[in-house]
């Protein structure tokens, strides 16, 4: 009995030491709002199980996807490649960035603009040649270039998720819960990079409204979407577009016809919410081996929103066996294409007829059409 008591005291002392020792993570206490129920427009279903699986087993973590004018699908993968899926389903390497390509978007000249977590904002020519556009703003290097959208005048709006932690350390940024993120703009005509918003809790997905009067940026750790007004009476001001989401918002995209698509790679994690008010618990968690740290729920989850922030519909895979950890949603020609951080596939789901709006790009991918 005495040996057991001594053992417990030693274990307690070791845990206390781990929780109190200084380290890279300096956690802030934060009281998250109570997680909303999955009900109403967020009610669970299994509609994502109807998605086609493209490049199954041939890709690793196509975090964001884009479709070009010939209907070819592009994805940035964990091994630093930008892959391309041809009309017959063949997967080829379009380029290798030497980093971790995340957000993808084509500009008006047909270049693929890439937010690379390690290399900054890149431009890939139609032939796959890589040019670095920008790597810093206001003297602060990008720590985690994440997502982007491009305005009609060529301005690139993009996010730097964290100026402190890099892509492989995103869980440390979550545990620290301090606002290291920024929303930025790059102006191709001048080469200038400007900070539009700072103090964001993991700045992630970026999307412009139909008339480009505002731009959205996801604050993943705070479960919300911020809006920055670019024109009109509120120009230069920022507000909350959607608050207290039932999951972690990752990528967001616009179909430029009044709809936004939101990817939520996991539902809310009770373990994380319970730790947030207690810096010592988060400091301790940051020192645990990876297999003991909180893990995302195996769940597929995307939502459709209008430009007023109303949730119109959601699509789920409740057990995550078909699609899970979805990090991006891109609408194209009556389908949504779904990227994932660690998965080995790209999802493609045909939209209900009521959502196939006019004015969208109309390209076909005959080799992948059901």
Structural class: mainly beta
Order of helices and strands: HEEEEEEEEEEEEEHEEEEEEEEHHEEEEE
Query: How much is the radius of gyration in Å?
Result: 21 Å
What summary fits the major beta sheet?
Answer: 4 strands, antiparallel
Give unreliable regions as ranges. 2-21, 356-370
Overall average pLDDT? 91
Cα shape: globular
Helix content: 10-25%
**Discrete helix count:** 4
Strand content: 35-45%
**How many strands appear in the DSSP assignment?**
26
First-to-last CA distance: 68 Å
Placed side by side, the strands forming the largest sheet appear as: 1-26-25-24
Question: What does this molecule look like?
Answer:
This protein has 370 residues and is mostly beta strands. It has 4 helices and 26 strands. Strands 1-26-25-24 form a 4-stranded antiparallel sheet, with no helix packed on it. A 4-stranded antiparallel sheet has the order 2-3-4-5, with no helix packed on it. Strands 6-7-8-9 form a 4-stranded antiparallel sheet, with no helix packed on it. Strand 22 and strand 23 form a beta hairpin. The longest helix has 19 residues. It is globular and about 50 Å long. The N and C termini lie far apart (68 Å). 44% of the residues are buried.
